[in-house]
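thread from #wetlab-drylab

HS: before we spend reagent money on co-crystallization trials with adenosine-5'-triphosphate, can we at least see a predicted complex? here's what I'd submit
DV: go for it
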Amino acid sequence: MLLSVNNLAVSFGGVQALSLSHFSLQPQELRVIIGPNGAGKSTFLDIICGRTKPDTGEVYFNDRAIMGMTEVSIARLGIGRKFQQPSVFPGLTVYDNLLLAAKMKKDILSSLFFKPSQLLKARIHEVAEKIGLTKVLSSIAGALSHGQKQWLEIGIVVLQDPKLLLIDEPAAGMSDEETYKTGELLLELSNNHGIIVIEHDMKFVQQIARERVTVLERGKLLVEGSFNDIRNDQRVIDCYLGRNNTQLENL
Ligand SMILES: Nc1ncnc2c1ncn2[C@@H]1O[C@H](COP(=O)(O)OP(=O)(O)OP(=O)(O)O)[C@@H](O)[C@H]1O
């Protein structure tokens, strides 16, 4: 098991944001988490990456207990997080953004004397190819399209060789074509990484959910199953009804 979670609970100001008795992920599994606003999806990823401390519970990554570790230590162990907000350096080229990400993996001291080796250059080109940005490696990141910026963000995380990738709403704001390409990219990445994706667009979920989908509601596990199981589950349909949001797009 790549990730295993038991009895995780966290409250904010007396309101329970998450109460999850069990969750597990296999290596190279791509899991999609859905659920309406406030279901606890981001809180869950925040706990896994060490950004939020739970009140109770255990998280095991490759059988190692990681609760209480800092975000940096957890990242070093191999958990990479891609947030929804952009974090690329807009004034740097795509290549330099990737190079910087690769440098950040090294210790501070060694990076002072860091020179990009042929091996590293090859790795940057390999990742650029994967994320579809080979032709724009020398472009300024700020000039990329929204979709390209998101792929660069994914590339930056991938360059750090995480065993587990946590990705918040990767297709938000993308065109249909960009969304589809993002889905194909995540499917390809799942050959080498465990991936947890939070997503709202059901057409996109259908494209990438080859295994289980986890549905959270009000901080609790509502149901887990194949895409077809959850799409036809009355509890899932009910939990979105009457909500003033556009989250269950294309259901
Ligand atoms: N730092 C915080 N302080 C106070 N309350 C918080 C904090 N983070 C999350 N919450 C609350 O915890 C609950 C779960 O929020 P969370 O953001 O995890 O849900 P979500 O499923 O990711 O929702 P969305 O799809 O809207 O992003 C919500 O009621 C939210 O208001």
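DV: The chain has a mean pLDDT of 90.
HS: ok that's useful, forwarding to the group
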